[in-house]
Amino acid sequence: MITDWTPENVVAEVRAAEAAARAVDAVPGVVRRQPGVVGLIGQVLAEAWEGATGTALPDLGGVTATWAGAGGLELDVQIVVDARHRACDVGSAARVAAAGAAAAALDGGPVLRAVRVRIAEVDLYGRG
After folding, report:
1. Any idea where the domains of the chain sit in the sequence?
2. Strand bridging mode 30-33 / 111-123
3. What secondary structure letter does DSSP report for 70?
4. Domain at 7-123, CATH homologous superfamily
């Protein structure tokens, strides 16, 4: 969710969220990211991103970036965890991966203030 619609902020939010999404996808035990309700806000974000960068919006499902004030960004990530893995370990690894990737993507830009990972579901049957 975008809370400050300047082109620079939109670009920073999307870059951080995309980096976090890719990093979380690579964590063993993460089945998928669990997207929230996007609706109209997703369309507005896509248009703002495309206007600012000239490229299509990457897949950010399950990752939300918001401004915490004073140049700080916060990320919320929702994941589905494979039941064959310890959910707490997967969540912790996902948070570390997301934080590292997002901070690197923000290099020289806004400060990453927080990364929260929520386990939305445990996949008991391995269906993904």
Report:
1. 7-123
2. unpaired
3. T
4. Cation efflux protein, cytoplasmic domain (3.30.70.1350)
